[in-house]
From TrEMBL:
Compositional bias ranges of the Basic and acidic residues kind: 207-216
Residue stretches making up the Gcp-like domain: 32-143
PANTHER family: TRNA N6-ADENOSINE THREONYLCARBAMOYLTRANSFERASE, TRNA THREONYLCARBAMOYLADENOSINE BIOSYNTHESIS PROTEIN TSAB
Pfam families linked: TsaD
Region Disordered: start-end pairs: 198-228
Source lineage: Bacteria, Bacillati, Actinomycetota, Actinomycetes, Mycobacteriales
Record InterPro entries: ATPase_NBD (IPR043129), Gcp-like_dom (IPR000905), T6A_TsaB (IPR022496)
GN (gene name): yeaZ
UniProt source species: Corynebacterium matruchotii ATCC 14266
GO annotation (BP), single: tRNA threonylcarbamoyladenosine modification
GO cellular component: cytosol
Domain of life: Bacteria
Gene3D superfamilies hit by this protein: 3.30.420.40
Protein name listed in UniProt: Universal bacterial protein YeaZ
Amino acid sequence: MNILAIDTATPALIVGVVCDGATRSETVLNDSRAHNELLVPATLRMLNDAHLTFSDLDAIVVGVGPGPFTGLRVGMATAAAFGDARHIPVYGVPTHDAIAHNLGDPDNLLVATDARRKEVYWSSYHGGQRVAGPEVCQPARLGEPTPESDYRLDRVDVMSVPAKLAPMLPAVLQETTVVSGVPLPADLVAVADFTGKPEPLQPLYLRRPDAKEPTKKAPSPAIVRKES
């Protein structure tokens, strides 16, 4: 089974081809901030490196976040377009689940990714299973109960968090082992469920997009309207 895997939920652009469980090609463009310009060229390059074309693909897997609106929209819309053009299924998977798989699923794992606005998206895992999240909050409030959940982080053995946000974490997490998890193509494929028809792609935005429709302003009194 030849699978194209894409993730644009983090500042990194991740694209690769996985064939029968083995990675044939992959690229990780860190801090790209240009997913829209780089995704299609990166995809074509990865297919070429794997000695495949779009016609050889059997399925596509794409990370559905959580992540910022623009990045997720680029990755998911592109994956959907590829799938529609080739008439092949597109499977959405939570990006945090792929990161957890990348880290080997330690007993008590916290995955946090940059949500911008000085916030983080987070998910908690125990024994390889997600037990809380994904949610969004300020780094200093990680582990506190929220209006959506009364879950508390009683114990965290390993934590994946962006380096620039680590100093902002609460004191209870400052001594936790910090690692850098990445949703590599093989991890995205590993957490996908291929046993049935894929569900419609649902992005995990967790909050409203940064862009807002401008409010209408009253006409200036200096403008003279003609009488009809």
